[in-house]
Fold this protein.
Amino acid sequence: MSQMGKPLYRRILLKLSGEALMGNESYGIDSNVLRNISEEIQEIHSLGVQIALVIGGGNIFRGISGASRGMDRATADYMGMLATVMNALALQQALEKLEITTRVQSAIDMKEVAEPYIRRRAIRHLEKGRIVIFAAGTGLPFFTTDTTAALRAIEIGAGILMKATKVDGVYATDPEKDPTADKYDRISFNEVLQKNLRVMDATAISLAREQGMRIVIFNLRNKGNIKRAVMGEPIGTVVEGIVHVE
């Protein structure tokens, strides 16, 4: 828990799913949801927290689902990366309407709309109080935006990787199918992998484990949860290098 109302983390990486931007829509971006997320980010930015973001593209196109329909996986993944750029630009505009200077850095070169991803430049932006949105995944197929989030969090020296989802943490089984499923308050990287809990993909979890990058998973739909996570309040599930006690 933070002391005297100060944020527990100086620099964070917030991972948002593309689906989070849909709200109650079946496709695309809900402008009300986009505004609400931006206002929550604005609140923690005003506390002096350095914020980087990674957004998925599932509200527009998912590489894996494209591949399952017979499309070449690499091509489908590149299309998914382009979808993340669209979401990044939408979020950038929403944040700048709130007068927060924001930069989009893309792992795929498209200089007309975004900076190229350069680690040192990203860190410099963060130090100057700018929000940085990392788009286009890793720039390579076969890697998810979860893996991108873990990689970028480590590269920029974030204090924590925060994954905002539609559920309030990690459960032993799917809570939508099993209402009695037990929720973990804390769980180790090894347990997540051994139990195949699908918190994030295995590559992301393995990378975070190797580099000691703590992860917190929480429900984005509960207003104020981003701030609660930054302040160190006990919400969601913390994934770290500990041995979970049953």
